[in-house]
Amino acid sequence: MANTFEAVGNRVKEIYKNSQEEMNIIDTLDKRERWVVNYIITNNKIKAKDIANHFKINLDTANNWIKKWTQKDFLKRLDDKQIRNVDYILTDKYVKNLK
Question: Measured between alpha carbons, how far is 90 from 30 in angstroms, rounded to an integer?
């Protein structure tokens, strides 16, 4: 019986730890990033012009944000063959923790 309680206790600790890791990744997102996540969940992808239009910024600024987010491992290119009008999606790290 003691072994059963110990196993249950270990499982609860594991679940708690995993939920904390998921919360931590969500907590790292700022308002802009949260909007991007919601947009991608709704539309499956995002473009720099979508960001520029929503935040009323120029396309260069939107591309700078995207560059920062790709370096942060938040976004990645949907297709590496695209040169212009590139589509971006969330990295697997965020997709896994936000669903």
Answer: 15
